[in-house]
Structure formats: structure tokens, C-alpha cells
Structure to design on (1123 residues):
């Protein structure tokens, strides 16, 4: 059925029917609170059925309580349709060819004025209409692979992406950009790091923390940074490109396996954990921070390994956790478990029997740390040694989410626990590093005089 | 330019042609002839504890140099409904400004700098706004819908202001007519601008986010004085609620003015109501002047489409020039551009406002749009020409100009040259059309300067971060109980108390009627006397002294109570008030000590009269009977003040003298 009342329900629909009023009609309303007039707008389905939304001539929206309405009269009708303007993306001889894959994140979009819905901009023409500067950086092609929110990205999408990227590389692309929602951006980055090995070109995942329908959005600048990195950088890795500081200054290129979203809303939410970012990026240049990275190559030798086992769990340990948490995973057929343990990698004694059971059943358990920074060290306390005896494998300094993705990827290829162990413990893209540099862990505390002095001078 | 062109003469002549007269000499019918109409947008901060969409404290201001961190942003235009960019948006983007925010941890959180979505709206602010909307008798909406109103100047880090309509359609009664209200909205206040130089604008975020109401009137005011009256009424009404902030910047007006054939011009940031008449008067004539220019241009240049300015790099040597701005620009390696405006002779020095010409319009736009600091150009109709004969000839040769043309020379960084050329051409083209849509900044002297292109109606977006907030009937009834007495009733009350007319403004401005009422009710003091104590005595003191802390008006009640308790005479008020105004924390006993007051009974004071009388008769030099009275009063005043009404003492002295004289 076509929803002619566009989001209205219950009492609100009744009153619209009673006075024979359509959505988008210009209406005069008499209420016990006085008269109102304007255009009836659609209503968000989650809102109540007691109000009607009206756009006043001044451009403001207001709600009218249906219980106060005494009369309504339609005096006109103005339905609005929205479309992002398309301008042909210009081709510039000599510029790198970059492919942008869309996954459904709203990296470039604008708001539907009247309903508040977000219309994504995606075709090169639309993107050029919104961020014309891109044409000065690269020759852009786009392909919309799927339209899902970040939280709904999963194994199928990882695999499709990896295969599509592999094909583009074969065809001779100079760089890849993936537009992605930010919530699970780092999960996808980790998955692609394992599924696309030895890429000859940069593969850049980018998102935005403030949607592009607002003037202060970070989307346009992130997109320009990503395009610069994809088109011009020498760094052939899977990377996340997002704001360095919250100021509009530069972006950071993070290794896909060492990056994590660390703030629910900040622009500079993505941080490299336990290492430094690979490079900084501005609209016109890339400045490496690290010296060791894979360089851009002309060959097209890339390995695409699109494997993923769905039955893997990431268990966040908490005090007094009961063994039934693990038993239920066993009962439900899970094939591997990653635990984010406390401190150096610990869980409580009541879990031991369940852990032992996993070993007997050939369900590998990998230990990571909730502290995010630092290595799992299971030799320091007896607890750790006991756990290892029961089969738990310390996953070095792999981030919990990364270990989860990697275990799923490994189990997607083999059930052999020894082979899985080899895959898990052999670093592919710095998910495990030999050492943690001194500046790999920096969380400054506000209020301390020297820190205050620093942030007064340097943009955070 | 023709040799016999006289700039000053042209300015005065065009001023006469426009028909400009100073406001005080302008009869009301002139405004009618101009087709003057004006409307108001009155902004008023609410006295809430916290900001509107976050939990930062509201109303704490800090010094511009006192900040904890800075951050940089740029504002990018977003596409409008029709798939185009809003005029203001585009202009702001052309300016390529680095916007710097100075933040203080105490007053600024991650919401303020757009790194956290909004928290639920501050209900205290909604309560106050609804109460004031009820005072204005507006139709209250059923649901608040938070809307984003775009601002690309950076004054709000998100790039938009969150705002919502509380009520629409009301009426305020002025002395002779009624003014209709369009709407009252609640919104978050913007940042305070610290500076705006070249490509860098700096803001302070302490004011950002403070809840504000905006009351918008229809353009029902037909004279500058009516605009002032309406502004005062709305201000007094807001203050009568007792729920608004007072002090510098807590109340600000935007005034819209247009005349027949002109356009709606928004004069922004009028922080003092008393500026309004002069500003609106001058704006009306500025529009008239632009219409005169339009007619002249279209007469001499029949095909405006073909009109085209010529821009050339200055190729002749200006190194001998003494004019500092050009010297500096040359030293910095900037470019020097000459421009010929065909058939524009007499336009650049054309009168627009007192002391301001059409050239000032160009100067304003070059500053704002092309980021060229003032002075940013010289021209052929400068009062004090910078170029000598030789340079003028070289310029004429370069531009190949004719006698009826006008010329401009400006200097700019390479990257700003194009925008500057476009800006000059754009503004000159607009002169053929009349009055360009724009917002203007109010100056103290009653004139205005260009601020921004007027934003279109397309800059309103629903806020996807907030849910609608229902306003139920029961809630409205609850707020109605909080309402103060109607402002009209306040006027009536003052009249009934026989308070002199010259007291009204001060009393209403400071919302003192409730305070007078309280003193009168509790202490049974004549309300007229209380009113003049406020509006004459205290007002006079306020003009003379500057206290360290804001003087609380409730202190007057305490003072009267103290006087009654101590059975003092009211004459002492004039001595006590300056002291408590300066030191409002001081105890009244200490105030008396500081005045060296000592208590005497009436008898003790009166007993001195006869001895003083005989003393005077010994030393007297004057035969005037008044001399004795004066001398005796002068001697007794210090001990009588506060102990006995001076008038009573005076009567006694007079009586005593006349009886003594009879002896």
C-alpha cells in the first residue's frame, strides 16, 4: 500500500481524513490555541500520533496538537521532490585514476529539507556537485556496492568488497577509496587488511563524523584527504583516513589493523593504538610518520583471500562471568572465541572448566586485552599460566576487534587448529607488532599544567 | 574624470537631490512619502543556569585573552533545496576564512565545538520562553521542532543555529497603534567575535549556546520613533518576566528597513535601542540615494548588460608614492590593479549616508568578501587624491578612460585579486538594479556598513539530531501561573501612583514595579516617593559612580526597612544611597558610621536653635532675615540629617526666628 499519509498514524490520520487534507497541502488550521497556516509535511514514523507537522512560511517547522484542531482547510498543494544536482566529473589528462566504492555510509549527502531524511550523494556527478575540489586531485570513478548502515556491515560485504577491489587492481586502478559509516569502519579495515594481501596501490577507507548536510562537516575534507592519499601516496596498504585533530587541519592515515574508533562523536575519533599512524595527509601532500610501509608498485600481484567464518565470538570479560557464557557458545556451534580479558589477559577461575572443554572440542580461544594498549602477558601471574595450560592462546598486541576479524578469516579457510594458529600468530599487516614504541601510548590528562600549556598551543 | 569635477560639490549636490535632511528636522510626512516601513527582531538572553543544548554554565564571560585552547574550522556551503547554493553561503565560501575558536574549558564543552550531538533541550529555557510567549498572547505551538538555521560566518561552530518556534501571531499595543508579532522562537546564542582580519576570523565561545528568545514583528512601524517605541515595549515586556538576563549584550536588536522601490535591509547587532531612530532614518535615505543612482545610471547607460569594467595590472612606477597602504602592499609584493568604471563619473562620491558615499559600499564589500583590509582602494573621487598629475595621466593611459568614467586602484594578494575584481563588478552592476539584498552592521554614529548578503529562506533545515517536544495544554496552564502582571497594567499602575512620566522608562527598563509594590505593601511608603528614589536619585547616582559588583535593586527595600526600624528621617536616603550603591555588601550600621551619623532626639536638636539664634545675632553681617535661617540650618544639618525631617526643622527655625524678631 502506498503510504499517502507519509508517516502519520492513529489520531493524526483520523483528523487528516476528517478534514480531507493531504500531506504536502497548503493548509489553514484553526485550533483552540489560535490559527496556523503552512504546508503539511510528512512525519517521522517513530513520532507520536498526536501531532501534525506544519512548515510555516518563515521556513520553520512546528507541530500542531491534533486534540486542539477545530478546523482545517486545504488552500493549495506543493509536493517537493529532491535530487542532488549532477555535474559531469571532469577528466584531467595525467591525473591518477581512483575508484570510490560506496557501502552506504553518507560520506557525501544532503538533507531532504522537509522530511529531514538524508539523501546520499554518490555518483561521480553528484560528488563533483558537492565536492568539486576532487576533480583537481584525481579522475574519479564510483561504484555503489551496497547501501547498508555501518552497523550492518558484515562478512558478505567484506568479501564482496575484497573481490571488487581485486578486480579493480587487476584492471589497473591507481588507488581505491571506500566510503563507509564510521561505527564499524575499523572492523572492515581489519577484514580488508587480511583479505587483500600485498596490494600494489593504496586502499583507503573513509567516513565522516559530521554528515555533509552541515556546513561544519568533516566529510568534504576527509574525502579530499582520502583522494589525495589514494591518488598520490606511495603507501600501498589498507588504511583508514580520518581527521587528525578536531580542527580542519590534516588527516591521519592509520594502518587498517591498528586503528580504532575511540570517541562516540569527535571528529578525531580514529586513533592508531600501540603504534604511530603511518602518515599525515593534507589536500596537497602526504607526510610519512613511519618509515616501514609497503610501497606502491606497478605490478598487479595481489592476493585476494575472501574467507570468513560466521561462528566466531568476541567475549568481553567482566568480573563474576559465569561459564555458561562459554557453554552457550559451544552449544550454539561456535568455532572460535576471542576473549578481551582484564589487565595482561585474565579471566576468573569459574570459567576454567568451560575453557578446558573448548580445548577438548578443538574450539580455539585467543586472549586479547581490554586495556587496548599493551601486550597480552600470560606468564606474569599463575592465572595466565593456568589459562595457557587450558589452551588459551595469547594474541600478543592484536586489538580485540582485529583478533576477532582475523580468527573469523582464518577459520573461514581451515578447521585445523594448528593451521589457524599459524595464520593467527603470523603478522600480515602489523596487527601484531614486535615492539611497542614509547610514543605508541599517549593519552594526555587534562588539567596538568604542561598538558594545558601544550593544548593551548597545539590543536587537539 | 573631467578636470572641473569637484568631489565635495558633487557629494553635497547629490545629498540635496536625494532630499536628505537630518532626523530632527525631518517631518513625519517625509517617511510616508518615502514609503518607510520597518520591522524588528528582538533578541533577549534568558536567565537560565545552563546553556540550551548542553550542560555548560550560561552567562560566564571571560576576557578575550583568557582561553585554554584554540581550534580551526572552515565553513562549507551545503546545497539548497533547488540544488543551488544560497547567496550568503556562496559569498562566505568565496572569502575562504580560517575560523578560529578560542575556548575556555569552564564554559565550553564538546557540544559547543560540534564534536558531540545536542543534549535534550534545557527545559528551564523552554518554560521561560513559553511564559514570555504567553505574555505576548501568541498562539503556542503543539510541538517544538528544532530547526537548523544556517550561518556560514563561523559564529556558530556547527554552521547553523538550533532554533524552534514557540508561538506565532500576536499584538503589542503602542501609544497610538498596534504592532503585530510574527513569531517568538527560542534559539542558542552565537560566539562573540574577537577579530576579523584578512583571512582569519577569531571567535570566543563563552556566549555560544546561551538560551535566547527572538521576537519578530511585522513591518508595521512607519516612522523611526515608532520602531524605537516598539523595541522599548518588547524589551520592557521581556524584562517584566524577570526571567531574562540584563547587562551588555544580553538584549540585541536586528532592525529591518525598506522604502518604496527599495528592499528589506537587515541592520544587525543594534545593542542600544536609542540608536534605532538614527539608524532607520539613515537607512531609509541610503535606499533613496541608491534609487537615485539607479535612475541616473539607467538614464546614461541604456544597456546595462553591455556595461563592463576594465581591470589592468598597474604597469607604471608607483615607488615614489607616499601613501602608506600602497607602499606596504608593494613591499609585501602584492599586486596593484587599476580599474575603469565606464560612465561612473559622480557615482563614487555620490551621497549615501551622512559622511558616506557609494565608494564606501565598495570598500565594505571588498573587506568582507575579498578579505582586503581597509583602506582597500583609492579612486578618482577621493576627497584627498593620492595620485599626482603624472600618475593620473599614466593611469588614464593604461585604462584608456574617457572623461565620464571613474577609476579605482586597489592592492591585494595574488590569490584575492580575482574575488576583488568580481566583487567590484558585482556591486557596480547592482547599482543599476537599486538596493541590493544585504545585512548591514550598525555603527554608533547612526550609519551602517555592509556585513553580509542577506540569506535566503532556503537556509532552514530540520534538525535530525533532535526529536519534537510536545507542548501540552496542562503544561501551558502551569506556565500561565508564572506570568507577571501585564505590561499595560504596569503603565496603569504607575499612572495611578502619580509617578512622574520621566520615571517610566527607568522603572520599566529595570522591571521595578514589583519592587515598588513590595516596598509599598510591606513598609507603607508612598509609591511615588519610592519610584522617584529609584528613577531620580538612584539613576543620578548610577550616572556618577561605578560599583565593583552589580547593585541589587532589592537593597532599596532593605534600606527603607532599616530607616523605618531605626526611626530615621527619609532625608538621609540621599546620603545612604551613594554608599550602598558602591558597597552593596556593607551593613547599614556601618553605612551610618561611614556617614558619621549620631542619633539625637528631636528635642536635643531643637534645643540648639535658640542658642544658635543668639550666636547669629552677634556675628551677623546681613540684615536679610533669610540669612539667619540659612546659617542656623547649615549648622544643624549634620546632626539633624536622618534624625528629624529637615523640613520640620526648617519650619521650627523659621518660627523661632520670627518669634525672636518679635521680641
Amino acid at each position: 500500500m502506498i503510504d499517502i499519509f507519509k508517516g502519520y498514524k492513529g489520531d493524526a490520520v483520523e483528523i487528516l481524513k476528517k478534514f480531507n487534507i493531504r500531506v504536502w497541502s497548503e493548509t489553514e488550521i484553526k485550533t483552540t490555541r489560535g490559527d496556523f497556516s503552512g504546508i503539511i509535511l510528512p512525519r517521522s514514523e517513530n513520532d507520536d500520533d498526536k501531532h501534525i507537522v506544519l512548515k510555516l512560511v518563515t521556513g520553520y517547522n512546528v507541530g500542531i496538537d491534533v486534540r486542539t484542531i477545530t478546523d482545517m482547510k486545504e488552500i493549495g498543494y506543493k509536493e517537493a521532490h529532491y535530487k542532488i544536482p549532477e555535474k559531469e566529473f571532469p577528466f584531467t589528462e595525467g591525473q591518477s585514476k581512483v575508484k570510490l566504492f560506496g557501502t552506504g555510509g553518507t560520506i557525501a549527502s544532503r538533507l531532504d529539507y522537509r522530511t529531514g531524511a538524508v539523501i546520499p550523494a554518490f555518483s561521480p556527478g553528484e560528488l563533483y556537485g558537492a565536492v568539486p575540489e576532487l576533480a583537481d586531485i584525481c579522475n574519479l570513478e564510483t561504484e555503489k556496492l551496497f547501501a547498508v548502515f555501518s552497523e550492518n556491515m558484515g562478512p558478505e560485504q567484506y568479501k564482496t568488497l575484497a573481490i571488487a577491489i581485486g578486480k579493480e587492481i587487476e584492471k589497473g586502478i591507481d588507488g581505491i577509496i571506500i566510503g563507509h559509516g564510521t561505527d564499524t569502519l575499523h572492523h572492515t579495515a581489519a577484514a580488508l587488511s587480511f583479505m587483500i594481501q600485498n596490494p600494489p596501490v593504496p586502499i583507503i577507507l573513509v567516513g565522516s563524523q559530521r554528515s555533509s548536510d552541515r556546513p561544519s562537516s568533516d566529510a568534504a575534507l576527509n574525502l579530499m584527504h582520502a583522494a589525495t592519499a589514494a591518488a598520490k601516496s606511495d603507501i600501498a596498504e589498507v588504511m583508514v583516513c580520518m581527521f587528525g585533530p578536531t580542527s580542519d587541519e590534516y588527516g591521519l592515515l592509520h594502518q587498517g589493523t591498528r586503528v580504532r574508533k575511540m570517541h562516540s562523536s569527535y571528529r578525531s575519533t580514529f586513533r592508531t593504538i600501540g603504534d604511530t599512524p603511518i602518515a599525515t595527509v593534507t589536500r596537497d601532500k602526504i607526510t610519512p610518520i613511519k618509515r616501514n610501509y609497503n610501497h606502491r608498485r606497478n605490478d598487479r600481484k595481489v592476493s585476494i583471500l575472501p574467507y570468513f567464518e560466521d561462528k566466531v565470538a568476541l567475549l568481553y570479560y567482566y568480573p563474576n562471568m559465569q561459564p555458561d557464557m562459554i557453554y552457550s557458545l559451544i552449544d550454539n556451534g561456535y568455532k572460535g572465541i576471542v576473549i578481551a580479558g582484564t589487565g595482561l589477559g585474565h579471566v576468573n577461575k569459574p570459567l576454567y572448566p568451560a575453557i578446558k572443554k573448548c580445548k577438548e572440542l578443538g574450539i580455539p580461544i585467543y586472549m586479547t586485552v581490554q586495556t587496548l594498549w599493551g601486550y597480552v602477558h600470560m606468564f606474569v601471574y599463575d592465572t595466565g599460566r593456568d589459562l595457557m595450560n587450558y589452551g588459551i592462546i595469547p594474541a600478543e598486541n592484536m586489538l580485540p576487534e582485529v583478533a576477532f576479524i582475523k580468527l573469523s578469516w582464518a577459520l573461514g579457510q581451515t578447521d585445523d587448529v594448528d593451521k589457524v594458529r599459524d595464520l593467527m600468530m603470523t603478522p600480515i599487516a602489523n596487527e601484531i607488532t614486535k615492539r611497542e614504541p614509547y610514543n605508541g601510548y599517549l593519552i594526555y590528562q587534562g588539567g596538568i599544567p604542561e598538558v594545558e600549556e601544550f593544548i593551548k598551543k597545539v590543536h587537539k | 574624470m573631467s578636470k572641473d569635477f569637484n568631489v565635495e560639490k558633487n557629494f553635497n549636490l547629490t545629498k540635496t537631490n536625494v532630499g536628505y535632511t537630518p532626523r530632527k528636522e525631518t517631518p513625519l510626512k517625509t517617511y510616508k512619502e518615502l514609503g518607510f516601513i520597518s520591522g524588528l527582531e528582538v533578541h533577549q538572553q534568558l536567565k537560565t543556569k545552563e546553556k540550551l543544548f548542553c550542560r555548560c554554565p550560561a552567562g560566564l564571560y571571560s576576557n578575550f585573552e583568557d582561553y585554554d585552547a584554540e581550534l580551526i574550522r572552515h565553513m562549507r556551503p551545503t546545497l539548497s533545496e533547488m540544488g543551488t547554493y544560497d547567496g550568503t553561503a556562496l559569498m562566505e565560501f568565496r572569502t575562504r576564512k580560517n575560523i578560529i575558536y578560542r575556548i575556555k574549558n569552564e564554559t565550553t564543552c564538546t557540544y559547543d565545538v560540534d564534536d558531540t550531538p545536542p543534549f535534550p533541550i534545557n527545559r528551564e529555557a523552554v518554560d521561560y520562553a513559553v511564559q514570555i510567549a504567553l505574555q505576548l498572547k501568541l498562539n503556542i505551538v503543539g510541538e517544538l521542532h528544532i530547526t537548523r538555521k544556517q550561518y556560514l560566518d563561523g559564529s556558530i561552530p556547527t554552521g547553523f543555529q538550533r532554533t524552534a518556534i514557540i508561538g506565532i501571531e500576536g499584538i503589542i499595543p503602542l501609544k497610538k497603534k498596534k504592532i503585530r508579532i510574527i513569531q517568538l522562537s527560542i534559539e542558542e546564542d552565537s560566539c562573540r567575535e574577537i577579530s576579523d582580519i584578512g583571512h582569519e576570523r577569531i571567535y570566543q565561545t563563552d556566549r555560544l549556546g546561551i538560551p535566547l528568545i527572538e521576537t519578530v514583528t511585522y513591518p508595521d512601524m512607519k516612522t523611526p520613533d515608532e520602531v524605537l517605541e516598539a523595541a522599548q515595549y518588547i524589551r520592557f515586556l521581556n524584562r517584566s518576566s524577570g526571567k531574562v538576563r540584563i547587562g551588555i549584550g544580553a538584549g540585541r536588536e536586528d532592525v529591518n528597513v525598506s522604502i518604496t522601490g527599495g528592499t528589506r535591509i537587515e541592520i544587525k547587532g543594534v545593542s542600544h535601542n536609542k540608536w534605532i531612530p538614527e539608524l532607520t532614518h539613515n537607512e531609509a535615505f541610503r535606499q533613496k540615494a541608491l534609487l537615485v543612482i539607479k535612475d541616473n545610471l539607467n538614464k546614461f547607460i541604456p544597456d546595462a548588460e553591455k556595461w563592463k569594467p576594465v581591470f589592468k595590472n598597474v604597469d607604471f612606477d608607483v615607488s615614489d608614492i607616499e601613501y602608506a597602504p600602497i607602499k606596504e602592499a608593494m613591499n609585501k609584493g602584492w599586486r596593484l590593479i587599476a580599474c575603469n568604471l565606464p560612465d561612473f563619473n559622480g557615482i563614487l562620491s555620490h551621497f549615501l549616508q551622512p559622511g558616506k558615499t557609494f565608494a564606501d559600499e565598495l570598500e565594505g564589500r571588498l573587506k568582507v568578501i575579498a578579505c582586503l583590509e581597509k583602506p582597500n582602494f583609492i579612486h578618482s573621487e577621493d576627497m584627498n587624491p593620492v595620485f599626482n598629475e603624472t600618475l593620473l595621466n599614466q593611469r588614464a593611459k593604461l585604462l584608456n578612460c574617457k572623461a565620464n568614467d571613474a577609476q579605482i586602484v586597489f592592492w591585494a594578494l595574488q590569490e584575492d585579486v580575482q574575488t576583488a575584481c568580481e566583487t567590484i563588478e558585482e556591486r557596480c552592476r547592482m547599482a543599476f538594479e537599486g538596493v541590493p539584498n544585504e545585512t548591514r552592521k550598525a555603527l554608533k554614529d547612526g550609519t551602517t556598513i555592509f556585513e553580509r548578503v542577506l540569506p535566503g529562506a532556503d537556509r532552514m533545515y530540520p534538525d535530525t539530531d533532535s526529536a519534537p517536544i510536545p507542548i501540552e495544554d496542562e503544561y501551558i496552564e502551569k506556565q500561565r501561573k508564572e506570568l507577571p502582571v501585564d505590561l499595560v497594567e504596569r503603565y496603569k499602575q504607575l499612572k495611578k501612583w502619580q509617578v512622574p512620566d520621566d520615571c517610566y522608562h527607568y522603572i520599566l527598563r529595570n522591571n521595578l514595579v514589583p519592587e515598588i509594590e513590595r516596598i509599598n505593601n510591606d513598609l507603607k511608603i508612598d509609591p511615588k516617593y519610592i519610584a522617584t528614589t529609584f528613577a531620580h536619585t538612584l539613576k543620578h547616582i548610577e550616572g556618577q559612580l561605578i560599583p565593583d559588583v552589580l547593585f541589587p535593586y532589592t537593597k532599596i527595600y532593605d534600606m527603607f526597612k532599616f530607616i523605618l526600624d531605626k526611626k530615621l528621617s527619609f532625608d538621609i536616603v540621599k546620603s545612604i544611597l551613594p554608599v550602598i550603591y558602591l558597597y552593596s555588601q556593607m551593613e547599614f550600621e556601618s553605612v551610618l558610621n561611614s556617614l558619621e551619623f549620631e542619633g539625637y532626639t528631636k528635642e536635643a536638636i531643637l534645643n540648639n536653635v535658640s542658642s544658635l539664634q543668639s550666636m547669629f545675632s552677634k556675628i551677623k553681617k546681613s540684615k536679610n532675615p533669610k540669612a539667619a535661617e540659612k546659617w542656623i540650618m547649615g549648622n544643624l544639618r549634620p546632626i539633624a540629617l536622618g534624625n528629624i525631617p529637615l523640613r520640620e526643622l526648617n519650619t521650627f527655625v523659621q518660627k523661632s526666628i520670627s518669634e525672636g524678631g518679635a521680641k
About this structure: Chain B touches chain A through 64 residues (CB under 8 Å). Residues 633 and 650 of chain B are 7 Å apart (CA to CA). The mean pLDDT of chain B is 91.
